[in-house]
Amino acid sequence: MMDEGTELSLSIAHIVQRLKGSHLHSQIERQAKDCLHRPEIKLESLKEDVRSFLKTSGGLSQLPPSHPTAPLEHLKEPLAYMRKAQASWEKRILKSLNSMSTELGVPLARKRPGAEQKELINKWNEMGTDEPGLQTLPRVFGPCSHLPVLISLRNPNHDSCEDVSARSHWGLIQVPLNIRDIPQLRQAYTELNLSSGQLGIDDLAHVHPGIYRKQKDSLVVEQDSAAAQQYSRRGCPTGLRAALWALILNSTNQLQDMMHYEQLRAGVIQHNLLVDNLIYKDVKLTASNDDYYFVFEDFLYQVLLCFSRDTAVLEHFKYNSATPPKSYLHEKIHSAGIFIYSGVIPFHGFSMYVAPLCFLYNEPSKLYSVFREMYIRYFFRLHSISSSFSGIVSLCLQFERLLQTHLPQLFYHLRQIGAQPLRIAFKWMVRAFSGYLSTDQLLLLWDRILGYDSLEVVAELSDLSFSLTIAPQAVLADLSTLKVIPLIQIFLFATAI
């Protein structure tokens, strides 16, 4: 049974997560900023003042009834078989990390000697020139090791014989989750219909963008997060994308944010973590070899190393099905606790979540702040096992169902020759297409992820890549020529049901 403080903290985390991006959240945020300037409001007693006000005003009675007997992990993920699979996956990763530490003789965490700290300070902006002997360092996991875990998922309470269609057995994902079909997607993504203007299409056709100019200036001035999110559904102008994304994510770059980044930087300089080597290796194998992102190598090291030290990231585990890894350390940094301060173990391709943002933000503290918000809202769902509609399991299932429904002959043919479509598309989805699309098209796709507060468009675009019948092998080998928004529009609104 949870105590009152834990239950309240969990409730607040769920409420904040649901409010983010809404008009109500924008109003609350604006009112909160105004209240901070009032002399009767004291930050040191704010928490208790709010609690006592809710009790005396009867506000608590208006909240939905809670279930104090429900364990914390049940509220984070309601399905037992999902929780079991996630726990097993975490145990496997942690075992791999501990084995790596033992075999290489490298501790999970250690304090850097003074000389090493001074050297790191001097080369902070040139870390791309460092080669810490990564050849012998194996990857902890990547898409190739994660997909088999998702394929093995089964609901013990579900009888597959009850499925109404034989097509349900064609795909690799065999779990019963609620996902949207084309009519439901059309209703949810109405702003993408063929008659609505879209940045990414109409700007290329030289259509007068007056409807955009009138709105975008007022959005930035008024700092309306909900309006910015609504605006993003039809694409963000290149020159204002950085400001609009930061507004949607409520990411500021005020003095306290810059100070927080400097504290994280100091943590990187003082202590060395085993996962630092994983970050170095991932950047070298992915972003450094990418024609678009290799120039940002130093930025990627700075952001990702700071991210691994940020305990604020632990807050997302209140609504994430995963739990932060824990282990015993030889040095008393955290004697028996979380040895990765953020609780996130980097995997192959992790740096590609940061790389596209480097085109938008050239200040490390701002870049870091936006990336952290993107991760704790969206990207963590792409490598966690959960029943969330934006989770990787649901995205894989939606991808297979849509492809089976609208291209059954293609799906069946690929299945017969041993080329299951999901095995090809999974690597696209787990990276949200970063590293596969050209940067301008990727940013247009991420506009819609932020605008609709959902990763569903990732599954839709994966289906589109298979739906192209002209030179399919060339298309699947190189997605950089795809035009994202016209394809999504055609798939959703020009496809016969």
From TrEMBL:
- By its UniProt entry, which Pfam families does this protein fall under? RabGAP-TBC
What is the official name of this protein in its record? Rab-GAP TBC domain-containing protein
Q: Which organism is it from?
A: Poecilia mexicana
Sequence ranges assigned to domain Rab-GAP TBC in this UniProt record: 235-453
Question: What parts of the sequence cross the membrane?
Answer: none
Q: Identify the taxonomic lineage of the organism of origin.
A: Eukaryota, Metazoa, Chordata, Craniata, Vertebrata
Q: InterPro entries, alphabetically?
A: Rab-GAP-TBC_dom, Rab-GAP_TBC_sf, TBC1D19
Q: PROSITE patterns this protein is in?
A: TBC_RABGAP (PS50086)
